[in-house]
Design the sequence.
């Protein structure tokens, strides 16, 4: 038996931090070390994550380099813009997995436009399902975990773009549960407001995940892809259902075969049988994306629908998957592939 | 004081029938007559619609021409294909408002393709907000109420198509509550399945409301419009949020002005202030559509989002609005414009 | 036609204020005057209450006596402890209806224990369904609207206590939607926390509505009643379902007749047919309480279940009902008795 | 490495069957054998349990003794009354774990009254947390898994009854998600009906779990216990929150110590820190019960609140826990103790 990996989680009182801990508690190679927080430092984890009963009495400590040093792996689940300073001071032998946006974008101008401030840099992008990415993650010690929307939409559209089935003008409408917005105390996230209601926000290309999708899809297509993205807020805690479509390319054929070939090798991407369509509940708590694809002959469009749990495959599960790859563990270690349903 | 209108509702134990009765109970010119049902005939209405307390003891009678005769207005809320036989035998002076699909489509071939069987015919289309429709409804004695999805999407896109702001290839992704599927005993409509989950169905142009949208939008545009339509099922009882987009036409401008002009004269269509986006809860139980519109400059698309209550403006409220117009009552009589929120 | 009543609402950006305005917009004798707020003063109502479209452009003003003066009726929907100062400076001819707790309790010691600070006083208690209350409300110019839990539980248990059917040790477990907690920015009220979860709070007699229930029930029983009250928070926006039970008194009989007699004269209390049990959806948006009662012979207890909408009959609807009584309007004016369901 | 246990699940297309398979897929000592069904036999499991992706292509076979024979363990998740015939024909060396009610009650008269028909018999009762039960389960080859309500309420009240803290007249109001009713196609279980609504049913001692609670609690107390039980149906798929109270016994003291002592040795029962109250989401998908207890001094009652996932600890997780005990595996093998939240 090898020594367990000692793992710290920065931002342990938030939703991404909680999901990381839920998964790490079931990971056989891991020992949970420091749990850090901002304003919640000094309080027990149980006050913020009552579902994590085995860790209820652990005290949250301040998010500092000192607390995070001395671990084999550090997961950062911090607000955007807070990762760079910490990461710079952690040793290059420590695996740092950032669940924030700081190191996702390659283009400093895009960072500047969408997030403002100085661009921290670019780390290997933690979406192993995209062509070439898995190799770059092996042995990496710095990894940028994708956003929740880019994860499912990039996986949904990559096969079609790589195979030239569609022209590069995609339309994405993705319905998300509220946990994607984090534990933010905003009126529009109150239960009274979200239950019984669907709404939209950041319409018309205003969502910060748009440049990330554009970056991913353009890389796969080998040419610029325009993305019209509309996020919907729906009354559930977890889950994203992304409806992705684009005009069929001339002579496009073999759609299902393209997707079957893509999914055959991916342990966490499941192509549903023909006639079945994804539901987010089937992926709840699992590190999976469920896909289905069809052709709308009348409208001349390919339509791909993907479902994921935004906190699992869309954040924390993807992060643990990347840790497994980086540290040469079997990629599926400790990661559920079965949703909690109904 | 004039004599009250005597109104019958066929299909009173279903969701559309229940919503008709809720509105008719608040309509000052109406007296509620026969309430008919299929398998539920002989039972009290209260057993099926416990919210309609004032009518709890009324007994449902069989849906027959004899029961429906002798009323000034007959609302039909029956399964598709059941309206024609009854309507044919009701007098031409009786106002028959059909909430089913039987008389919505003008093209018999479209009917044949999407619904099968013989086409019953075409009645004046009960969406007064589309150009020219209101005049055709005045004095009409047969009216076909639109489907719930076509109501909100046609209203959302009509101004842009009429003004030439977009090219005629529209993409619609619309999230609906479960009541749109009626009181059908299907496993996928069970509470355990729908709560905490978003799913999709009838993807790729397979939904029967597609030809109705195509018909409406092509009429407004004056040329064929292709519609890529994907419906989502979301965990709430009522409400539709439709995200509609299309490529901007060359030289398109004055988007907001076009929508302001359209909404100015419509008592039930409300353009939200800039920066606000529709939420279905704001329209719950109200006969209204809330709209917002923007331009996605990067993607070169116009995006319009519309919200409605599928049972109110999308079905029963639209039906009562049409009755008001047909019978020369003030169009807004008895129809709430304020949602029940939060 | 008489002059409309000029009505002001203090606290118009909150949930109780919003519900007051929803109902007042449908009240035929009312003209809506000043809308006041605390921190939201200076912003348009539409930013906080997007469902109140007809009032979207009205600007919220500061909650001051100057703004509220000059109206026939002033509804106060303010945090506890803020009503007294304003009420003291409004003329005695103005009808002031307080939706807060300040004037509900008769016993200064109870006020001190449960709310702290000085007791403002006691106003006529706005629950007309309790014996003797309706008469006290006629012509009143100061009215204290009951809390949401006390409304439904007092109505549910009053008939049994008045008729001596039960011994005075009642157990109440009441499940409430989240709007009962107001628009408070607390983590446990976030949609992500409440959806898919039932929790409890203020267990063991710690909820501030306990002394109010005790006061009401003891008055009806004519002797001290002990109340064991446990509130549940359930994943919906609106509604309370209260399960109330107590040991049967010796020789208790005629249970159903007692409840039938009570409900016969009450326009807003509906006894369901035998075999049917209340559901909150049947009362959504309506000023009604739905009741059912039974005897558990094995356990020797009477069980009464009551449903209401906490914002309508439980707050704003009850307030408007009191206004109607105080000003000698028909008690049911402008108040819906039909829920919005499903 | 020992040989895996070969396990069959009868009733694999239902909710209990699905949850058994979700847990068994994560159990390291188990190999999944026959999956049987009634009307769904012949179809793939994936059509009914899309979340169980690794088993999607497995075909359901008829529920017959022949299909179930040849396994080490057979879980029965069948409608009440269907287990006896099958169990009688499976070898005495096969571990049969019945998730139905057939073998739970000791008293044939109670069976007759509550379920009707002939009493099949009584098996060791699969609630190891009750005094003496764990020993009876070791080595057992027939086990009756408790009902979902009796599981949490028995665990919540057993410590107080065993320690003589309360008098034996308990009141239980328990709010349950809809999956407790199974995948039944009934109108009141449709999503449209349950979302946004709390209702009640089987009030006044009419629920079949009442005699099971009475049996358990009377055994613990050593004298007859009367149980007043009211179940609530709340808008979520999974979870039960049980509010249990009873009059304090004279001289009762040391309440918290009693519960601490009880929970200290139970791997799946978690006493929350003082001031925290259970939420069902904290137990979602986990084989745990979360408890909190307090004294209501004014009302003179002890109040205990317990939360569980009705499908996990309340059914399938409890069944797997019993299998572990019966077969001398570590009791916690393969059973999550961490909920999926938020």
Sequence:
């Amino acid at each position: 038996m090898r020594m367990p990996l000692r793992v710290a989680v920065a931002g342990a009182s938030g939703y991404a931090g909680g999901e990381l801990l839920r998964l790490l508690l079931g990971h056989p190679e891991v020992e949970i070390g420091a749990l850090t927080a901002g304003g919640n430092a000094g309080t027990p984890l149980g006050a913020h994550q009552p579902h994590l009963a085995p860790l209820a009495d652990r005290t949250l400590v301040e998010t500092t380099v000192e607390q995070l040093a001395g671990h084999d792996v550090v997961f950062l689940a911090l607000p955007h813009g807070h990762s760079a300073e910490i990461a710079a001071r952690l040793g290059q032998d420590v695996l740092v997995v950032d669940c924030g946006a700081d190191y996702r974008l390659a283009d400093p101008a895009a960072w500047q436009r969408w997030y403002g401030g100085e661009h921290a840099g670019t780390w290997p992008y933690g979406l192993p399902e995209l062509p070439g990415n898995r190799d770059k993650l092996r042995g990496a010690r710095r990894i940028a975990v994708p956003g929740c929307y880019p994860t499912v939409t990039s996986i949904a559209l990559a096969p079609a773009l790589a195979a030239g089935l569609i022209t590069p003008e995609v339309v994405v409408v993705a319905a998300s549960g509220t946990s994607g917005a984090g534990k933010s105390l905003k009126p529009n996230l109150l239960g009274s407001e979200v239950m019984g209601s669907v709404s939209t926000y950041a319409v018309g290309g205003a969502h910060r995940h748009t440049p990330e999708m554009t970056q991913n899809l353009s890389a796969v297509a080998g040419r610029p892809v325009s993305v019209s993205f509309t996020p919907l807020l729906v009354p559930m805690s977890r889950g994203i259902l992304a409806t992705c479509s684009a005009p069929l390319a001339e002579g496009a054929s073999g759609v299902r075969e393209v997707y079957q070939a893509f999914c055959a090798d991916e342990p966490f991407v499941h192509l549903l049988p023909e006639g079945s369509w994804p539901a987010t509940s089937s992926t709840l708590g699992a590190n999976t994306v469920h896909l289905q694809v069809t052709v709308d002959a009348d409208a001349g469009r390919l339509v791909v629908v993907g479902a994921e749990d935004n906190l699992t495959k869309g954040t924390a599960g993807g992060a643990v998957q990347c840790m497994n790859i980086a540290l040469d563990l079997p990629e599926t270690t400790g990661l559920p592939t079965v949703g909690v349903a109904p």
